[in-house]
Amino acid sequence: MVTKKDRCSGYFSKLEIMTESERRRYHNRKLKQIITYAYEKAPAVKKKIDQAKIKPGDIKTVRDLEKLPITEKADLISLQKKNPPFGGFNGVPPEELGRFFISPGPIYEPGELVYEDTRWAQGLYAGGFRAGDICQITFNFHLVPFGFMLDSSLKLLGCRTIPAGVGNTELQVRVMKDLKVTGFLGTPSFLFAAVQKAKEMGLNPPKDLNLKTAFVAAEMLPESLRDSLESELGLMIRQSYGTADIGCLGFECSQKNGMHFPDDCIVEIVDPQTGKQCNPGEIGEVVGTCFNKVYPLIRFGSGDLSYVSDEPCPCGRTSPRLMKIIGRVDQVTKVKGMFIHPGLVDFVAAKFSEICACQVVVTREGHQDRMIFRTELVRPCSDPTILSEAIGKAIQEILRVRGEVEFLPKGSLPEGAKKIEDKRVWE
Q1: Which distant-in-sequence residues (6+ apart) come within 8 Å of 308 by Cβ?
Q2: N or C: which end of the chain has fewer CB within 10 A?
Q3: Portion of the chain with pLDDT greater than 90, in percent
Q4: Which domains does the chain have, with CATH numbers?
Q5: Predicted structure pTM score
Q6: Of 293, 297, 292, 280, which Cα lies nearest the Cα of 70?
Q7: Which H/E stretch holds residue 131?
Q8: Backbone angles phi, psi at 78, to 5 degrees
């Protein structure tokens, strides 16, 4: 049996305890390799470097990345329309790929057939996952890559996995109990919902469930919710940060004092206006560069705003730490673990001639996101129930999130209103 002490000590990789100079040399070497490779193999990267009027050899250090523009998520959508399926960012031909993934947008992502990414494994180990654990993955395996990424990383740790996917809360609780699951992976709100469902089923979660550690992502984790679940269940809950496009960019350790940068990538905090790198403590956009030869994204902007601390961490890991995510560069908002873009909101509305204006409002109730799709109609609807159901279906198909439909009188939405109004309050 793995003890709690075992879950808080050690490292997955010796890279996690490199000195500052060792890390700088390591990143510079890996950066030069991926720049050279991507320039030769990925047409979009070649174009990006050529348009900056530099040569691959001009990128010798992490600081030299400032010579290149940032590629935002919205750029992938337009680039992929011009050059399908991957916008020219794939570093291997599509016929060599084992899987294709699709994220909202749509954005197509290549499966990582010839590249083994250990960044999520670093985060899982820091979060207390150990060989022999039985791990229930409640993230989506349908079209998107995250569930597969975690499954592969858990196997690197010697864990056994249950690809449970999302939903079916009662069944998920039954699986946790019957198979004596020790590790949970999912959103914080689903972990909370599972605990509540267990109680409804007449179970005593601390006694009847065997959970020892939980890895949560894709949503904000209020400290009040973490404290409540950790004390009630007697487990450790750690969170991570990343995107489906570029993978893990940060993970918590036992200390819960920020998210360490994984070492097999480069994370910058960048001034969104100038593209220049920020100093520790300064707020900027989180920008990642991965060493993935299948999908070599160079200076990929997350759209999230944060800041970095380079103070020593008691856990012994020496990488800088990403601190609290404090907002978005644009109006893109994450709801129930999925990114919602203003353009996609308009795309839903465009399917219905009855809609003349719309707005998404996001609130938070009982530790779970609530999304309301507010619509103004051209004229009163003869059968609002049928129209509401049709709009709700389109919302789920396009935004990949369930939302409530609310009809408003024409002229209710003020001129210049945000397309996505985020009214959530985090403790």
Answers
A1: 269, 278, 280, 281, 320, 321, 322, 323
A2: N
A3: 73
A4: 1-330 (3.40.50.12780), 335-422 (3.30.300.30)
A5: 0.80
A6: 297
A7: none
A8: -70, -40
